[in-house]
Design goal:
Length: 804
């Protein structure tokens, strides 16, 4: 074999891929265009085959399983033949599906078998000799019903529910195509029932649910679940079907309560009761999300449970490195692996563009998934050989394919939720980020963060994540552990606030009332601050969030189902504790640089210091001021939580958070949600880490900056700020070591104490802590002693006026 230089190989790759990545030349003949693009597709597939081969050899060599391994590299002729065969097969399958939909309204297993066997899609009967002819035919029909796209789901349900012997066999084989092992009961029944439409006859429903129950119980029996038999599983499954109808059918006027559901299922577990928490979980899941048994195939089936199933099938969970293909193997020389890294570095960029081109060309989910697996393999190889720029390029390409980056926000929910390829790209994006986070650098993290911020702006992130980010933390609580009241600065349309307000009737008011206890009543305090300052005028809801049409609402539901299955919080918060230090520093820098900070001049000052108008920075994205504020506050909360999670690596996270907080607070002259979230982050960090010398100086600088803010800003956040200041003095009085920091505490007390009786009570208690336990603050500073006397008079006067 002749030796090809790396430059020559790169030129060959670029030349062969060019027709696939650009529009064909109009001057060429149509036949030349087809041939050129076909060659490009073949070249792209060969490159991904090579990457797959390198991955296999690297894994086996790293595991010490020898140097003489097998490769799955295919010849050009094999790839071409298989691609043509797949296209021909898909056309035939589409024709058979149309005939099924036209004729099988009253079909049986035998009729479907005849249709399938007479069609050209089944070359011959299965050749296994250890199963009966009926079982082989049943498997053939079951696979057709399960795997063929665009079949009428109601017709599938009719066939599965028929009572004849062969249809019963088909039902059994169909149910065996589902993997329910270690899957929750509600997820399993969703995946099963959403693959067809249940027929209306009770006997047919009974047969189908009995088949499901047998399969689910057999697969989960080794895990010791709550169900003791297949019969118990059947009864519960039937009860869930009835519950789904009861909760989501408008004709049912008197809805079943959770107590009714638990009562109806007493003694079904072989004479024993199922655990109430288990039944309540099922009731809650079905009530919150309907099992949708649509007549048509397609996006309707993509519920949260379906996404989990697809993640397992596609390898994004537990097994993210499936082999790209399954071709014949050849034994390679023992020293082949020695050149793998050199080969991969040469073809790396070309392979990434090849995968992107294949994804762009994909006409169905199978082809799209094949291209996305190529991205996964490339990222795996790049991580193995420690090539950060390749992983960054993979992330950038996937972010672009997901339509979540550099896309106008208006219409993005519909664009993302209605296009399965975009959702699959998002799934792969998070899978690659999870497996290769150690080797991501600035470019990759920036693309990933852009997608996360788009999901936040579109209100697609999990509600619990938004809520966790938008809190005041566990440290800002009163003496009885109660959180402060909900702030009026946060607009009602913000994700965190909307979750609280919609989480249950009266829940928000209950939390506010609870906060009136404890430290609020130390001096007979009580009442509400409502009306003392007036509520902040609510920021108008951004236009891109005003979804009205059924199509838009449906697209948002589908998009949320996709994102909910990705464990976003684990990846962007909790797993940052384990990534390499250089990657963590790049992540924090990218979050800080991604926050649009609006200054008093109504321009967009990015945390890095450069300034651009909203129109310039968000060109084509529809990034209005309200959305920019929401994104900036999200970045602050996100980076604050990452810093709190990485307490042993503050040197990597804190400089970026400090820069972002200073940009958000310095010289502010108006109250607003962004300032509030920045102040909350400052006090969360101070309460947790002020004893750490490496951040103390900057933390106290922030505290001094806060004390210089206009009184109108501090009074808007006085309810929770007074609690935070009380806790700070209580826990870290000894670390407020400079005269300036002590003066700042007193100045903040003066500015916030006169808001209402609650804050004056807390402020007076804070003054008590200072005068009773920290007199050393004033022993060597006469000016500070005068400040303390002034503050004490102000706070006491505020308390007197509040009582009056």
């Amino acid at each position: 074999m002749d030796v090809i230089s790396s430059t020559d190989l790169q030129d060959i790759v670029h030349m062969e891929l060019q027709p696939l990545s650009s529009d064909p030349d109009e001057s060429n003949a149509a036949e030349d265009k087809v041939v050129s693009r076909a060659l490009s597709v073949i070249t792209a597939k060969i490159m991904l085959e090579v990457v797959d081969s390198i991955c296999i050899r690297y894994k086996m060599f790293s595991q010490g399983r020898g140097q003489k391994v097998e490769s799955s590299v295919s010849t050009v002729e094999e790839i071409t033949a298989k691609r043509r065969a797949r296209r021909v097969e898909k056309k035939k399958l589409r024709t058979v599906a149309e005939e099924f939909n036209a004729k099988m309204g009253k079909g049986t297993g035998e009729k479907v078998l005849k249709l399938v066997m007479e069609s050209p899609i089944v070359p011959s009967r299965m050749s296994e000799t250890n199963i009966s002819v009926e079982d082989r035919d049943g498997i053939t029909v079951a696979r057709f019903l399960r795997m063929t796209p665009d079949l009428d789901k109601s017709h599938i349900g009719v066939v599965l529910g028929e009572p004849d012997e062969f249809s019963t066999c088909v039902l059994s084989k169909y149910t065996e195509t589902f993997a329910f092992a270690n899957v929750s009961f509600t997820d399993a029944i969703r995946i099963y029932l959403e693959s067809f439409r249940l027929p209306g006859e009770a006997q047919k429903i009974s047969r189908i649910m009995s088949s499901f129950a047998d399969r689910y119980y057999r697969q989960n029996e080794p895990f010791g679940g709550p169900l003791s038999s297949a019969d118990a599983t059947y009864v519960l499954a039937y009860a869930v079907v009835m519950l789904n109808t009861d909760r989501h059918n408008d004709s049912v006027k008197k809805k079943m309560t959770v107590d009714d559901f638990v009562r109806n299922n007493r003694g079904i577990n072989d004479g024993k009761d199922l655990d109430r928490d288990f039944l309540e979980g099922i009731y809650r899941s079905i009530s919150e999300e309907e099992i949708k048994m649509s007549d048509e195939a397609g996006m309707e089936a993509l519920t949260r449970a379906h996404w989990r199933s697809l993640l397992l099938q596609f390898g994004a969970i537990d097994n993210p490195h499936r082999s790209f293909s399954d071709h014949k193997t050849t034994v390679l020389p023992e020293d082949t692996y020695l050149h793998d890294e050199d080969v991969f570095r040469i073809i790396c960029n070309g392979s990434i563009h090849a995968a992107f081109a294949l994804l762009d060309e994909a006409e169905d989910t199978t082809e799209a998934q094949s291209a996305l697996e190529g991205f996964t393999l490339i990222a795996k190889c790049a991580a193995s050989y420690r090539i950060p720029h390749a992983i960054d390029l993979v992330i950038i390409m996937l972010a672009s394919a997901s339509k979540l980056r550099n896309t106008p926000l208006k219409g993005s929910v519909r664009e993302f939720g209605a296009k399965i390829k975009a959702q699959m790209s998002a799934v792969s994006l998070f899978a690659v980020a999870r497996q290769s986070a150690d080797w991501m650098r600035s470019g990759g993290w920036q693309a990933f963060i852009d997608c996360v911020l788009s999901l936040h702006a579109l209100y697609l992130l999990p509600a619990q994540l938004e809520s966790d980010l938008g809190t005041y933390g566990d440290d800002i609580v009163d003496s009885e552990g109660n959180p402060p009241p909900l702030s009026k600065n946060i607009p009602s349309w913000w994700s965190a606030r909307r979750l609280k307000s919609s989480s249950g009737p009266g829940e928000e008011s209950a939390k506010t009332g609870k906060a009136s206890n404890g430290i609020w009543s130390l001096f007979g305090g009580g009442g509400s601050s409502a009306g003392t300052e007036g509520e902040l005028e609510d920021i108008a809801t951004p236009e891109h969030l005003l979804l009205k049409s059924p199509e838009e609402l449906k697209a948002r539901e589908l998009a949320r189902n996709c994102i909910l299955a990705l464990d976003v919080e684990e990846l962007i918060i909790n797993e940052t504790r384990f990534i390499r230090s250089d990657s963590l520093a790049c992540l924090c820098s990218a979050i800080s640089d991604s926050a649009p900070i609006a200054s008093g001049s109504k321009r967009l000052s990015w945390a890095s210091g450069s300034e651009k108008s909203y129109k310039e920075k968000g060109k084509g994205l529809g990034l209005d001021t309200a959305t920019g504020t929401s994104i900036a506050a999200f970045c602050i909360d996100w980076l604050c939580l990452v810093t709190l999670k990485n307490r042993d690596r503050l040197g990597l996270t804190w400089p970026h958070l400090f820069r972002l907080l200073m940009n958000s607070i310095h010289e502010r002259n108006e109250p607003g949600p962004l300032v509030e979230r920045a102040l909350a982050a400052v006090f969360r960090i101070c309460l947790r880490f002020l004893h750490r010398e490496e951040i103390r100086t900057e933390s106290l600088t922030l505290l001094e900056t806060i004390s210089k803010l206009d009184m109108s800003i501090l009074r808007k956040v006085a309810e929770w700020l007074s609690i935070a200041l009380y806790q700070l003095v209580k826990v870290h009085a000894v670390h407020l070591s400079s005269h300036a920091s002590r003066d700042s505490v007193l100045l903040i007390l003066e500015k916030t104490s006169s808001v209402d009786m609650r804050t004056s009570s807390v402020s007076l208690e804070t003054m008590y802590l200072i005068t009773a336990e920290n007199l050393n603050w004033f022993t060597d500073n006469e000016n500070l002693f005068h400040r303390m006397c002034t503050s004490l008079g102000t706070v006491s006067g505020s308390r007197f006026h509040s009582h009056s």
